[in-house]
């Protein structure tokens, strides 16, 4: 009896897991293997793929050094800028805001994240474009400013697009903070600044780490924001990949770049998790 | 601090509000509001390319979200039953599906399917009795396959969180009262996890409906709504795009509020039980 029940148990488990397992195998694992094969292959004259085992695609990576440079500079810079804007907001929501308003205020932060990034980035194209903010500024006498297609525009787009993702984990870690610690610190005569630096900030570091890691990782693969707000002048790895796959059609080289991008993501993720574990409790983030 | 926080809220909503406002502009100007009009909506929705793109997006989002909701929930249930090692494998696969950048998911799918088609299509052509064999190509199928990865991972994450907070005693009681395993599932487990399954479905739908970069690689000749919007933005900013953007915005706002409502109800019920 026991073994029959055991067999049935295992059969049902396997049947439940099979569709998702098959999907992941066919559309995630195998495509990755295919991409690896391409990355070590050669480019055919007309842009296709020639079988082979060579490192020439990877040795060619410096040809796209600018894309890597921009991404590796602007992704962390964007994440840190995001953090600077996000921390006060998260602090306000978790500590200062009236509890009865909190739910609405937090919802208002989360909701934009789930609306189209394309539309939200487009809104900034509209604002920073020559007929938008620069036009407005010139009517009050300021000289013609070029805003669109600059690194600054890309950074604004990044902060705008990823702010909710940064605020949420920080908010979650601040909300769990034991208020009595703050009271105790104040009772013992600490100034607000030292209470913040000695208690609040250290205890919110796991949230800060999660936020910075999440935003940095997503930014490493960003395409839309540099494309629309950087206008081909400020381009990321994602833009190089679109060019190599859809325009100049060099799939083996593109695959090598994509594989490298995944490696960078894995390295960033590993480092972030190492640091997060050092700060004790790692926290789950609910974005909804 | 209050001033700064108010400014951030303004920063988050003003750009969107501007796009919405100018979608109702009577004139062509992007900086001067010359009067209220629905003309741009009329123009946008009499555009057959746009309607076709919207239709494609809806079909893809619905199918991928439905498959993700069903298979993701099944996987979440299975993960509760499997050994620790297998669970680690699934955790790893789902984490990869979420963490790997969309641009890489798109490329990997494109490369793999192109390789498969380059073998399959000539083989089919040589075996086919008539001169016009069917050709496999990119389209609905490839977009749904690639969107399903992220969606399935998200659904199973949400459903697993719900299962973790599910009372085990009521399940045991049901078994003790001679309910069949399926009966227990249908009458006890399913009603309790249903809100999170639906929330997962809505999030998956929103993700697929809004996704640009994955579809950009694997859409082939099909056009989804974000691809259409992207292509029109490249041609130049017009009030017609504002109208389309506003429509997309309203659709995803509706979905996300529905999802949040379902998840809210979940937490209320949980606290009621506890």
UniProtKB/TrEMBL annotation, chain A:
InterPro entries: MetI-like, MetI-like_sf
Residue stretches making up the ABC transmembrane type-1 domain: 68-274
Major place of residence: membrane
Segments crossing the lipid bilayer: 12-40, 72-94, 103-127, 152-174, 195-220, 253-277
Bilayer disposition of the protein: Multi-pass membrane protein
Assigned keywords, A-Z: Cell membrane, Membrane, Transmembrane, Transmembrane helix, Transport
Subcellular location: Cell membrane
Stretches assigned to coiled coil: none
SUPFAM superfamilies listed in its UniProt record: MetI-like
Family: Belongs to the binding-protein-dependent transport system permease family. CysTW subfamily.
Xref: PANTHER family: INNER MEMBRANE ABC TRANSPORTER PERMEASE PROTEIN YDCU-RELATED, INNER MEMBRANE ABC TRANSPORTER PERMEASE PROTEIN YDCU-RELATED-RELATED
Protein name: ABC transporter permease
Automatic annotation (TrEMBL), chain B:
Ranges that cross the membrane: 54-77, 89-117, 137-159, 196-221, 241-262
Pfam families documented for this protein: BPD_transp_1
Compartments (UniProt record): Cell membrane
InterPro entries: Bact_Polyamine_Transport, MetI-like, MetI-like_sf
This protein's record includes keyword Ribosomal protein: no
Matching CDD domains: TM_PBP2 (cd06261)
ABC transmembrane type-1 domain boundaries: 54-259
Entry annotated with the keyword Plastid: no
Lipid bilayer topology: Multi-pass membrane protein
Alphabetical UniProt keywords: Cell membrane, Membrane, Transmembrane, Transmembrane helix, Transport
Family membership: Belongs to the binding-protein-dependent transport system permease family. CysTW subfamily.
Name of the molecule in the record: ABC transporter permease
Organism: Mesorhizobium liriopis
């Amino acid at each position: 009896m026991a073994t029959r029940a055991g067999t049935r148990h295992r059969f049902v488990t396997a049947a439940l897991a099979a569709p998702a397992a098959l999907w992941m195998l066919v559309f995630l694992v195998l495509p990755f293997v295919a991409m690896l094969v391409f990355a070590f292959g050669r480019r055919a004259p007309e842009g296709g793929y020639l079988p082979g085992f060579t490192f020439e695609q990877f040795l060619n990576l410096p040809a796209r050094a600018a894309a890597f440079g921009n991404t590796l500079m602007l992704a962390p810079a964007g994440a840190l800028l995001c953090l600077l804007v996000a921390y006060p907001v998260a602090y306000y929501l978790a500590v200062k805001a009236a509890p009865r308003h909190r739910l609405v205020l937090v919802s208002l932060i989360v909701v934009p994240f789930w609306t189209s990034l394309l539309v939200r980035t487009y809104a900034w194209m509209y604002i920073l474009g020559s007929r938008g903010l620069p036009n407005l500024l010139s009517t009050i006498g300021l000289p013609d400013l070029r805003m669109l297609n600059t690194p600054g525009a890309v950074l604004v787009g990044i902060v705008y697009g990823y702010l909710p993702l940064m605020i949420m984990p920080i908010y979650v870690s601040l909300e769990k903070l034991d208020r009595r610690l703050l009271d105790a610190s104040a009772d013992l005569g600490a100034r607000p600044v030292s209470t913040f630096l000695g208690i609040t900030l250290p205890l919110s570091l796991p949230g800060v780490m999660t936020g910075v890691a999440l935003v940095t990782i997503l930014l490493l693969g960003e395409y839309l924001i540099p494309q629309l707000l950087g206008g081909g002048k400020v381009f990321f790895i994602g833009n190089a990949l679109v060019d190599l796959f859809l325009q100049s059609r060099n799939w083996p080289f593109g695959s090598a770049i994509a594989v490298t991008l995944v490696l960078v993501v894995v390295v960033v993720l590993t480092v972030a998790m190492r640091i997060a574990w050092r700060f004790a409790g790692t926290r789950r983030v609910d974005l909804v | 601090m209050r001033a700064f926080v108010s400014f951030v809220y303004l920063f988050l909503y003003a750009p969107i509000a501007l796009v919405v406002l100018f979608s109702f502009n009577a004139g062509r100007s992007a900086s001067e509001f010359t009067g209220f009009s629905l003309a741009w909506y009329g123009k946008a929705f009499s555009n057959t390319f746009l309607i076709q793109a919207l239709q494609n997006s809806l079909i893809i989002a619905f199918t991928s979200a439905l498959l993700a909701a069903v298979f993701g929930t099944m996987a979440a249930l299975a993960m509760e039953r499997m050994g620790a090692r297998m669970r680690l494998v699934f955790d790893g696969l789902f984490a990869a599906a979420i963490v790997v950048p969309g641009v890489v998911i798109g490329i990997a799918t494109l490369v793999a399917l192109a390789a498969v088609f380059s073998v399959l299509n000539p083989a089919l052509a040589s075996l086919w009795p008539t001169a016009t064999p069917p050709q496999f190509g990119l389209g609905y199928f490839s977009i749904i396959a690639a969107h399903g990865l992220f969606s399935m991972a998200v659904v199973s994450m949400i459903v697993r969180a719900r299962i973790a907070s599910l009372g085990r005693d009521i399940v045991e009681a049901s078994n003790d009262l001679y309910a069949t395993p399926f009966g227990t599932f249908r009458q006890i487990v399913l009603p309790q996890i249903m809100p999170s399954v639906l929330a997962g479905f809505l999030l998956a739908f929103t993700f697929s409906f809004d996704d640009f970069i994955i579809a950009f690689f694997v859409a082939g000749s099909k056009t989804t709504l974000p691809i259409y919007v992207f292509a029109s933005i490249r041609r130049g900013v017009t009030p017609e795009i504002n109208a389309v953007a506003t429509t997309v915005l309203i659709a995803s706002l509706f979905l996300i509020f529905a999802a949040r409502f379902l998840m809210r109800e979940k937490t209320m019920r949980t606290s009621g039980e506890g």
